[in-house]
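Suppose you are handed a protein chain with no further information: no name, no annotation, nothing but its sequence. What can you learn? This example shows the usual starting point.
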Amino acid sequence: MSNYAIETVGLNFSFDNQTIVKDLSLQVPKGSIYGFLGPNGAGKTTTIKILLNLLKSPSDQVFIFGKEINSNRIAILKRIGALVEQPAIYGHLTGRENLINRCILLGIKKSRADEMLSLVGLAEASNKKASKYSLGMKQRLGIAQALISDPELLLLDEPTNGLDPNGIIEIRNLMIDLATTHKKTILVSSHLLAEIERTATHVGIINKGQLLFQGTINELHLLSKPMLQIEVDDIENASTLLTRYGHEIAAKTDKVITVPFSSSQKSGELNTLLIQNGFTVSSLYQQRKDLENLFLDITKTN
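A reasonable first move is to predict its three-dimensional structure. Written in structure tokens, the prediction is:
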């Protein structure tokens, strides 16, 4: 029995002789939040459409819960919920009516509508017309629609796109809750590294249709070599002190010393060392690589 909710084996896909997805081998473990990362136009939405069988893949390249998608289409799709591009919402109906409509369509008991509205935090707005919903509320209603049939696997295509910071936090918390409390497997695509880092357990990085990296979030952090930025009043003497105590100085400007980040505890010890030696540390922060820099690193090492 496969441990993967999704597995693609050397998946290739072209539109009019243009290769969109090339030799893509995704492995999404059951129960994971898998961050599918890449710039716009990297092939993320195409891949998600292939996983939903909206675009037909060659046989024996796409497996969902260990079953080949083309020959088990209906059985597989019953176990998947998805939000691709914009949620299909009727603006003239209330949030609740939108979900009841979906229940009728799928032959599910109508009480699921209220359960899902509570789950996505829309119970209070259930009788409000969907056209009056904020973008974040519409996204949450879209996720409620995707969840109504109680799928084991959720495919979310850029679910935080266009949301304000509050909306982003709401979707993020909802995803974590769905994976941990409700035991869903979630594949979520994004072009924002920082966004994925906050939620994902596993990551796949795609560029120009090819997978550049796949692994756990910890493996990604090891790869991205985070740095610690130290703002201190006397750069030269502080650098000398740190070097004397065996710390590697990666870079320094007239205001900031950069050293490799290893752990929060080590950062604290470094801070204490500087303060005990009479330096004024005005800030100490971990610098995260953005996706572009990470790409450069990965393509350099590959």
